[in-house]
């Protein structure tokens, strides 16, 4: 974190497959990074990641597959696929008290901004 604060100022990117604290996620968001959320958020024991999703703005989240790993429930343990992203969006929506369609639209916009599309 300290190295990124010192040398990555003004850069943008994704903190891939995020699995740390909400406090640390907020620091990355302040630096302008997106937080990558994938299938792990659907796991029952992913309490810390669920808290992160609840505490950071939807405008700072991008959806990830981490294919072939970390498929969401109900495909946990199987090969992951981008076809399963709706499960991730639905879980984020439930945690945020939002519609899954709104999560999809916002995270798509986030990706467009990130990649300059």
TrEMBL record:
CDD domains: TatD_DNAse (cd01310). It holds the Pfam family TatD_DNase. Keywords: Hydrolase. One of its GO terms (molecular function) is hydrolase activity, acting on ester bonds. Gene3D superfamilies: Metal-dependent hydrolases. It comes from the Bacteria. One of its GO terms (cellular component) is cytosol. This is Hydrolase, TatD family. The lineage of its organism: Bacteria, Bacillati, Bacillota, Clostridia, Lachnospirales.
């Amino acid at each position: 974190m300290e190295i990124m604060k010192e040398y990555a100022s003004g850069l943008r990117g994704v903190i891939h497959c995020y699995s740390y604290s909400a406090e640390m996620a907020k620091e990355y968001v302040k630096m302008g990074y997106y937080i990558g959320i994938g299938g792990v958020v659907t796991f029952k024991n992913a309490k810390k990641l669920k808290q992160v999703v609840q505490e950071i703005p939807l405008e700072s989240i991008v959806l990830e597959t981490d294919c072939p790993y970390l498929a969401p429930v109900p495909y946990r343990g199987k090969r992951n696929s981008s076809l399963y992203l709706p499960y991730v969006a639905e879980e984020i929506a439930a945690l945020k008290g939002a519609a899954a369609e709104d999560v999809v639209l916002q995270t798509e916009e986030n990706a467009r901004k990130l990649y300059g599309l």
